[in-house]
Each structure stands twice: as C-alpha cells, then as structure tokens.
Write a structure and sequence with these properties.
Layout lengths: L13 E8 L5 E9 L2 E9 L3 E6 L5 E9 L4 E5 L2 E3 L7 H13 L1 E13 L8 E12 L14 E6 H9 L6 H15 L6 E2 L13
Parallel strand pairs: 4-9
Antiparallel strand pairs: 1-2, 2-3, 4-7, 5-6, 5-10, 8-9, 8-11
Length: 208
Amino acid sequence: MSDAPRDEPVDLSVSRSDVVFAGKIWDVRSETFDYNGKDTLREFVDHPGAVAVLAIDDDDRVLLIQQYRHPVRSREWEIPAGLLDISGEDFLVAAQRELAEEVDLRADTWNVLLDYATTPGGNNELIRIYVARGLHATDTPFDREDEEADMQVRWVPLDEVVAAVLDGTLQNPSLVISSLAAYRSRVDGWASLKPADEPWPEWLRLHK
C-alpha cells in the first residue's frame, strides 16, 4: 500500500553534542539541534546498540533465559542478547557469539527477524533480532559470571510464550516483540524472514 505508514529519517542540523555523563556501559549525551527554526535541547542515553537471538528448535520451542535485571528488580525471562560494543564487529558475528556465550549453542541457519528502536524518546538504542535454527551444542561450555552466573535456561513452545506475553506474565521488550513477530511470520511460512546480512533500514541508520 503506497499510503501505509512508515517511519521517516530526518537529518537535522546539530549545533552542539556533549557527553554529560560517561558511564560504564553507556553515556548520557546532550544535544542542541535546529527544529523548525528553533534551537532545541534534548538529553538521551547514547547506546552502542545490541543484537538478540530468538533460537527455535525443531519442535517450535523457544529458548528462554532468566536473568536478574537490577533497574526493574526482577529476574526476567528473555532471549539471548548482547551489546554491539566491539568496534567494527559484524552484527551476525556478535549474535553468534552471544548465543555461544550465554547458552552454549551454535546454529546452522540465521535470519533477520526484525530491527527496532527500543526507547526512541529517551535513548538511541537499536536492536537487531535474529532467528537461529538448526541448533547444536558448542564444543566448550562458556564460563559465566556476574548476573549471568545463575541464569536459568528453559525451552518453551512458541505458542505458550505468546500466551504469556499477552497475559502480561512475560514483559521483556525483545522477548515480547520477537515472539509476536515470529508467531505471525510462522503463519505465512516464515516468508517475512530476511537474509542474515540484511542492511539496516534507512530509518534506523542513525549511528550504525
């Protein structure tokens, strides 16, 4: 449909951009830009971006991990994910590394499920979610620490994950978005899946 809504990139003139807080993982940035002829100031979390993996086995079960998340004081059920914090690292390589490091798995088949901006009003975090299939154990288990040391792993049917999302039992954003997208894609025989090397869409280009 030619009139279907779509996000549009906007290239505004930024007159000032400063890091006002330098954190361990991400920073807070203050920027002044020209919007409709007026200087406008906004502060936001400057995020390196991330990848996440919806790993699905031959029985349509999704691999979930339970990990403690301090800002929300909760052990959330999530999908494997990690920061794009290695300069120049290919996104697919990062996703493969995270799957191996978090759950000791590798996959024969990789596809892009979707890309999304997590909180566009407050940070510039972009996440690419892959679907990984044809799963096998890695040769060497990974030694985990900090919040990953006591992670729980569970295989849950996709239908059950979606039901838990819809009743509010599961609330992690990447899990919510990926499970609903996968559920819909499965209806169409997974026709919406994209190649693993799919370029970022223009509206998500930002700093990528």
